[in-house]
């Protein structure tokens, strides 16, 4: 079936709301407005104002309310319009959602799902272009997932809702309009496992979410130049699926990590370090990464473009790692 | 402030006196145990404020949820967590109400719906909103009571939460324990308008100021408010005017207030004033008081023994309860466990 | 709401009409340029709300600081940033008032003390508090004006900031542009109490509601408030009741309000009503209006030409101004530059 | 001169307040109470209530006000009582302090200094035991420093105040009571450079702040066992001084990174990745790190102890890296 990522998420939401009375969607402009990115358009008409609940601009309170409602037996899906605004509710996420189970000695579960749009690329400038997945992936008690394919966009929500612990879904804004063929059987989605999206023997390109397609494109270009790249899509950012990552690196002996976060302290760094810890002797070349430049993302198109990972920069970095001097 | 009834029944009076005495003596013991390093971390005593928890919590109803702060020993005890489980928690023992993971600031109990124990000022309010929202969506008529200090009023989250409660008409009873200080910051140094109960009115929430040193006033006000919350399915707000007799925590040299001020407030000691009142009413005698003290002393001794006899969680279980162990999440858990294994075995 | 004076001088009237026309026509051009993809990112138009910026900003004083939101083109223009610099910024050019780094949502100008252009709802309020605090500590008598939408009122930061301003008696003039919607959320769906100007009273701040569609009312209210802020060295708050005629941004299908509602508000168009009034007063004729439109059209054409002729910042300067380049921080900068070098040359 | 870290910071604050009228200290309980950790005790008596300014519990507003006051020509030192509460003001730090200079095309500077206590070890449980330095070290536009020695505790503030950009100082709570000899000449402090605190030839132990002394102790123990460890104290967490780090690793050919942050997404991971990128061929063994266990820090003493890096665990990890099986 031909569809967009937006439609895939909408139908996942719809299905979840239909199947479980405890599920409701809450966030800024999810209802009347139809969602900042039009993802929830039409849902309020179908499910009413209680279950498609518009909130005031009060990120901390409504995210905390989602956590509380989860404690109270509901299965809330809380949409924080974008990761940028999640800076206002980090305390609730880190100090309540992530800790309540442990702090209570296992008495309480917090089955809340938080959805956030992430990423840059639309000239929205410094305050609206963050990629802070790595921050969330740092916090014990949270699970963090990021769909890169249509199937995952369609299938991850269901699994997230089944999870008794808090799950954060990062949806890259560049994906929503993207169209593609959605496999009939979306049960192939498994949020626990990284997926090898392209088999290759020369180098492992490890990426996720918004960069999956750039990385796949880069792999095609590399193939033309005789480099056979394997592409690993992380899917789960916390916990990381070391097994799949390491298996790929042990096969290719080289790795380049692609991540839209700023380089220093990026998730790419974490993955690199895991490889350096656990597969050091399998490596034939230094590790490398393609991340965002360390600058508040600028507005001007050419500067923003230069600040973010691009197909070109991925290709060049891989060539460098392969010893093909550029 | 709301008025108080003229007469208190002996039964009711003894109950309150017992409850307040239990809190008071338990906490005095805690201070002692802190000196002995049996209890560690931060310890915030409620001494002086007992009338609030003792007067309020019994009125909330069996099925009420309670959300509190790091100064919550009294609330936990009143809501039905045993002194054994509370003290064991402060000792860090597995038998504690949070299995030793939480300590003094993080008492929890699923059975009685005691949701902590939150050490971030104002951090509990959104949780209370959510608990009440769940009740409302599920058409359950129970209420959620949220306790917090007046220091929380300056936090943005307080305002966001009150607005949500009023906007969505949620069954939350907010109880602000205004003890005039947030650590060393006097209310007048932190709020431009110091009449706290007015804040709730700004959101159209029913609100009243109550003499928080008097258990009868507290009880009456809470009873009315609970009725209102249930009937109108709408939030209510009570400002309890009270005072803490002890330091903020065990590290506080109390540079910010005078001994005289503390002494003056001690004249209003809720235990002493209730005792005097019951005596004046002639429904309490020396033997009653001795009886209470004796049974409380026993309860405390038992709790200390229980806590002492408790067990440490095995260190191999360090990571337990970070995630739920279920079939679905097995792999997650496994992975994380493996990663941590490296660390634990470092 | 405050009253308005009965007569407007021709000079004053022409000034307001010119100012509002400049904002209106500039933004109409922006919408057009957005269609041509000369302007990108988010673009939020102020059309319909011009009376607020045009009536308020000239009264603040030469030395006033202005803090605004992402809907700030009109404020920037009124505060003295040239249309050239504004349009060049939206084009992403080096000649823009933020050198193309900020775009529509982040206009800045140190010279006129225009502190942005903040795209996080309520994020500018604490900055205004700080600017005013600096003035107070340095005994400077200038004021800081902080503009924000009514959507910000639900954010905790709004409350924290109002409390600080009142508590510390800071010379801030808060101007809430209540256009009844925050994106698609109607005020009544986001606030339990919708009379916004009352919020400030909860902090003991002088506050008034003003007809924000009428430049004369705006101007009078701001003049009084500025006087008050200066004389009493205390904050003041004005709620401007206004309406945006256009969509929230360029992506908004406006599902949340009816065409009729928009049409009704358009009857109150601040440009049209002022024009009618001045004509009725017989201080404005057709030639005046044509003259204004002509000079504004020229200003806009010049600005578009200027923006088109502007330059892109060299891509090698991508990292510029992340840190200050100074002797002290040379090493910091160097290090970071080297690290980033790898990336840029990927 | 014999003194404590607490005294060292207090005298640094005092000196700054004496030397520059624009400097003021603001935060919760810095005045009347004397500071949560008694660091600012006595300063309000000396400098008055305007310059030692107690704030309400409003982290976002008063940190934002510090940023605004810096824009307005002051040199504010804002104390966020602990890093735990900084979750409530991240938006101001990330979206205003860190971006204003860049977003304005270089027109505005934000010379604000933020001080925060960090770290665990005092049985304060999950919500009061964070080590989130790595988050701040991820953000372009911020500088992040962490004193580990008395001299740095005494000397860093002055340099931070001279910096025209926002600087965050992380002070580990375990240090305040620590006593030591303060060198007369504290001009040796240079926040731009990592410092080699112990020369060694076998392995580089890279650490900072609260873990410096644990690491030095571990190095002594290792020396008894014949392992000669070099100890590098980062001092600056953003930017990182790659030069000093790499020079050490190129000499010893092995590195173990010590960091109280949770392991996944830790600063230790970033440093490891930089080594793997830039000094791969110099390495004789896999990289390794000693971090906190991935769990909300528990209250009970034995569990908290087990969750945090300790001298023992550092020693064992180094032995492992050196091939001395344990
Ligand atoms: C967000 C946050 N900021 C700061 C602190 C440190 N702190 C702990 S208790 C306290 C005072 C709170 O006072 P109040 O709310 O009046 O409660 P009380 O202690 O008087 O019961 C402070 C500042 C904290 N725990 N959380
Ligand atoms: C903290 C935060 N949350 C959400 C958003 C997304 N957003 C941008 S504008 C807006 C509506 C703001 O409405 P209002 O304050 O009334 O200003 P107006 O746009 O009407 O001028 C929202 C929700 C944001 N920018 N910041
Ligand atoms: Mg208090
Ligand atoms: Mg609005």
Write the layout of secondary structure elements.
The complex is a heterotetramer, with two copies of chain A (326 residues) and two copies of chain B (346 residues).
Chain A: E1 2-4, H1 5-19, E2 23-27, H2 43-51, E3 52-54, H3 59-71, E4 75-82, H4 90-97, H5 100-103, E5 113-118, H6 133-136, E6 143-145, H7 150-162, E7 167-172, E8 179-181, E9 195-198, E10 203-207, H8 212-224, E11 229-233, E12 236-238, H9 242-252, E13 255-262, H10 267-278, E14 288-292, H11 301-307, H12 311-321
Parallel strand pairs in A: 2-3, 2-4, 4-5, 5-7, 6-7, 10-11, 10-13, 13-14
Antiparallel strand pairs in A: 1-8, 6-12, 9-11
Helix pairs in contact in A: 1-7, 3-4, 8-12, 9-10
Chain B: H1 10-35, H2 50-56, E1 65-69, H3 73-79, H4 83-91, E2 114-118, H5 125-137, E3 144-149, H6 156-167, E4 172-178, E5 181-182, E6 185-186, H7 196-201, E7 206-211, H8 215-232, E8 236-241, H9 259-266, H10 270-280, H11 286-309, H12 330-344
The structure holds thiamine diphosphate (TPP) (2 copies) and magnesium ion (2 copies).
One magnesium ion (MG) binds next to strand 5 of chain C.
């Amino acid at each position: 079936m031909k569809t967009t990522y937006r439609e895939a998420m909408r139908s996942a939401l719809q299905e979840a709301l239909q199947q479980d009375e405890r599920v409701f969607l809450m966030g800024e402009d999810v209802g009347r407005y139809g969602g900042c990115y039009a993802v929830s358009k039409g849902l309020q008409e179908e499910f009413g104002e209680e279950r498609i609940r518009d909130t005031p601009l009060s990120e901390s309170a409504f995210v905390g309310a989602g956590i509380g409602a989860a404690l109270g037996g509901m299965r809330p899906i809380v949409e924080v319009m974008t990761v940028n605004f999640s800076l206002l509710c980090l305390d609730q996420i880190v100090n309540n959602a992530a800790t309540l189970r442990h702090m209570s000695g296992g008495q309480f579960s917090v089955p809340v799902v938080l959805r956030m749009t992430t990423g840059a690329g639309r000239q929205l400038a410094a305050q609206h272009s963050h990629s802070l997945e790595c921050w969330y992936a740092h916090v014990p008690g949270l699970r963090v997932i990021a769909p890169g394919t249509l199937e995952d966009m369609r299938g991850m929500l269901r699994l997230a809702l089944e999870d008794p612990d808090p799950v954060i879904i990062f949806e890259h804004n560049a994906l929503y309009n993207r169209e593609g063929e959605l496999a009939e059987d979306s049960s192939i989605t498994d949020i626990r496992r990284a997926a090898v999206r392209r088999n290759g023997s020369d180098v492992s390109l490890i990426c996720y979410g918004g960069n999956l397609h750039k990385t796949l494109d880069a792999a095609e270009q590399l193939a033309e130049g005789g480099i056979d790249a394997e592409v690993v899509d992380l899917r789960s950012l916390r916990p990381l699926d070391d097994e799949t990552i390491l298996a790929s690196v042990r096969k290719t002996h080289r790795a380049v990590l692609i991540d839209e976060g700023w380089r220093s302290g990026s998730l790419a760094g974490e993955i690199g370090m895991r490889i350096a810890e656990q597969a050091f002797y399998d490596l034939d070349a230094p590790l490398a990464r393609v991340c965002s430049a360390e600058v508040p993302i600028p507005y001007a198109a050419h500067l923003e473009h230069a600040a973010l990972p691009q197909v070109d920069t991925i290709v060049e970095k891989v060539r460098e790692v392969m010893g093909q001097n550029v | 402030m709301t008025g108080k009834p003229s007469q208190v029944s002996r039964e009711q009076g003894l109950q309150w006196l017992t409850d307040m005495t239990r809190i008071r003596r338990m906490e005095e013991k805690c201070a002692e145990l802190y000196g002995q390093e049996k209890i560690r971390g931060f310890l915030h005593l409620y001494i002086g404020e007992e009338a609030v928890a003792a007067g309020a919590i019994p009125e909330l109803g069996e099925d009420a949820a309670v959300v509190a702060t790091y100064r919550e020993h009294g609330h936990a005890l009143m809501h039905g967590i045993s002194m054994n489980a509370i003290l064991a928690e402060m000792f860090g023992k597995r038998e504690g109400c949070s299995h030793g993971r939480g300590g003094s600031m993080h008492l929890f109990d699923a059975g009685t719906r005691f949701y902590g124990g939150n050490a971030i000022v104002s951090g509990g309010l959104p949780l209370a909103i959510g608990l009440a929202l769940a009740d409302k969506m599920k058409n359950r008529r129970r209420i959620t009571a949220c306790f917090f200090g007046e220091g929380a009023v300056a936090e943005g989250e307080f305002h966001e939460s009150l607005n949500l409660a009023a906007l969505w008409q949620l069954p939350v009873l907010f109880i602000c324990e205004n003890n005039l200080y947030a650590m060393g910051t006097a209310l007048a140094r932190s709020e431009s308008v110091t009449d706290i109960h007015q804040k709730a009115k700004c959101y159209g929430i029913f609100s009243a100021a109550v003499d928080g040193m008097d258990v009868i006033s507290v009880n009456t006000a809470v009873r009315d408010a609970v009725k209102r919350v249930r009937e109108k399915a709408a939030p209510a707000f009570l400002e309890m005017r009270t005072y803490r007799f002890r330091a903020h925590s065990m590290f506080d040299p109390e540079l910010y207030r005078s001994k005289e001020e503390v002494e003056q407030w001690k004249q209003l000691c809720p235990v002493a004033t209730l005792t005097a009142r019951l005596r004046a009413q002639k429904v309490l005698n020396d033997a009653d008081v001795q009886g209470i003290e004796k049974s409380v002393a026993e309860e405390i001794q038992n709790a200390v023994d229980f806590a002492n006899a408790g067990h440490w969680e095995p260190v191999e279980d360090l990571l337990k309860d970070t995630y739920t162990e279920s079939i679905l999440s097995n792999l997650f858990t496994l992975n994380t466990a493996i990663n941590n294994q490296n660390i634990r075995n470092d």
